[in-house]
Amino acid sequence: MTAETVDQTTGAGAEPAAAAIRAKRERIDEIDQAIIDLWLERASLSQEVGKTRMASGGTRLVLAREREIVERFRTALGPDGTQVALLLLRSGRGPL
Length: 96
Prior knowledge:
Strand content: under 5%
Order of helices and strands: HHH
């Protein structure tokens, strides 16, 4: 296989594979957008919860709840799930 026969946008060596890759990438892009949309919605809801809790005289954070979320993501996704959960939490409450 030479550089001339490789589809430069997909890395595939034949057109049927390139077409399949393009279709899968289109779905990946759709999923990415859904993740972004849900991430932003989650962050907004989390900020509202925090404001409501603090306005009622409560604490800024509920560490037991944060641990529960981290554990849920770790269980579902493995070690990377911990990092995802921490990023989600940070996006909703800001840095500690």
